[in-house]
Amino acid sequence: MPYTESGVSMLVLARKDEDEPTMWVFLEPLTKDLWMATVVFMVVTGLFVWMIENPINEEFKGSKWKQFSTSFYFAFSTWTFTHDQKFKSLQSKVIVVSWCFVMLVIVQSYTASLSSMLTAKRLQPSVTDPRQLLHNGHYVGYQNGSFVHSMLRRLRFEERWIKVCSTQEEYAKALKLGSKNGGVSAIFDETPYINSFLLQYGKGFQKVGPIDRTVGFGFVSSLNLSPSLGAC
């Protein structure tokens, strides 16, 4: 039988995250320790490859500056997989293949994290806990005739801080006005009704919760009766 989870949730305004991306955002996907470990292992890998290849490979010979630049160019080019040195030692090949596999995992994780940070919606609920509303003396709303009123009283909201709303339009208007302008800071209602509201007025609003658990809704039908809605 089709079933939808119920419960009482809180509907609040969504506010834009004030932390805008900075010029150093490309460093944020990896932790400081991971950045340091990656650089250290790059250098160590380049050093080991140079030590193995120097006696047998002409590409790693020459002046000290040439040896230094070749080794470190190889080490840092593995980040973008653009190294073009030819290795003659089996040990070098094993080290390089192993390190390239590690770099592949790091690069893929880095790319996914950075993309998520740059494209994810930076919206946060303006209120996350009913206790914030109680502490600050904010007005709250509920659907006319709903049992949510008794729940609000149980949460110790005084009657003077509780307002009745009857339609989704009133929900949106009251939340946009806010407590200081004759509206409310949050609407408490059953989760399915809030989900329905968000389908129509989703932009600028967010659901928090569920705050309280209730029975869900089950949808039943028969051959002789039209579909009906009942509490489970």
TrEMBL record:
Primary localization? membrane
Looking at the record, the residues that make up the Ionotropic glutamate receptor C-terminal domain are: 32-171
Single Gene Ontology MF annotation:
ligand-gated monoatomic ion channel activity
State where the protein is found.
Membrane
**Superkingdom as given in the UniProt entry:** Eukaryota
Give the matching InterPro entries: Ionotropic_Glu_rcpt, Iontro_rcpt_C
Keywords annotated in UniProt = Glycoprotein, Ion channel, Ion transport, Ligand-gated ion channel, Membrane, Receptor, Signal, Transmembrane, Transmembrane helix, Transport
Annotated transmembrane regions = 34-53, 94-112
Gene3D superfamilies linked to this entry: 1.10.287.70
Cellular-component GO terms for this entry? membrane
What the record says about family reads: Belongs to the glutamate-gated ion channel (TC 1.A.10.1) family.
Record's protein name: Ionotropic glutamate receptor C-terminal domain-containing protein
